[in-house]
Amino acid sequence: MKCNHLSRLLYPLQLHFLLLFSRQGKLRLQKWFVPISDREKKKVIRDMIMLVLPRQPRTSNFLHWKDLKVVYKRYASLYFCAGLEEQDNELLALEVLHRYVELLDKYFGNVCELDIIFNFEKAYFILDEFLMAGEILETSKFAVNLSMEQADTLQETMEEYMSKPAY
To answer: Measured in whole angstroms, how far is the alpha carbon of residue 132 from the centre of its chain?
Structure first.
């Protein structure tokens, strides 16, 4: 998916995918921003895990894979991995990964792998409030956190309403 010069100025980063996986190679979260088949997704996931996991801690967080740049960062026991186009800024992609971790930390209070496993719908919701179609939707941590609080309040209200007997 190639973009013209004007759209590159307006949207400086176009992610193809975002993956979270553990040190053991277990996929914890996946978000695809370009349409590809399930078979191709499995191949990409396998290749990313095989490329990233064996790398030494002090090596570069940037890789080239096929026609994409791959940017990854390890936080505790999770690897956050993003695929982007060749002309995209890898430092901006690294900042996007870091911002997502900050948002998760703010919501979960020092996020860990178990938070992602047991609250994956919240992790996806945070990601959807932050990114849309592979581009940054909201840069404000405050705005994303406000959306999360409002969604939690709505969910609690609905659960309370649904638990009351209907007469």
So the answer is: 11
φ and ψ at 71, to 5 degrees? -120, 130
Which contiguous run of DSSP H or E holds residue 79? strand 78-85
C-alpha Rg value of the chain to the nearest Å: 17
Supply the pLDDT for residue 140.
64
Q: Which residues contact 144 (CB under 8 A, 6 or more apart)?
A: 103, 126, 129, 130, 138
Q: Helices (DSSP H) in 31-140: which residue ranges?
A: 38-52, 90-108, 113-118, 120-130
Tens digit of each residue's pLDDT (9 = 90 or more) over 119-141:
999 998 888 888 777 666 666 67
What single DSSP character describes residue 62?
A: E
- Tell me the residue type at 4: N
Whole-angstrom distance, CA of residue 167 vs CA of residue 27: 46
The Cα–Cα gap between 48 and 53 comes to 8
Whether 94 contacts 63, CB under 8 Å: no
Instruction: State the residue for tokens 């969910």.
Output: 155
pTM higher than 0.85 for the full model?
Answer: no
Asked if pLDDT for residue 31 goes beyond 80, the answer is yes
Residue written as token pair 């400086």: 12
Q: What percent of the chain has pLDDT over 70?
A: 87
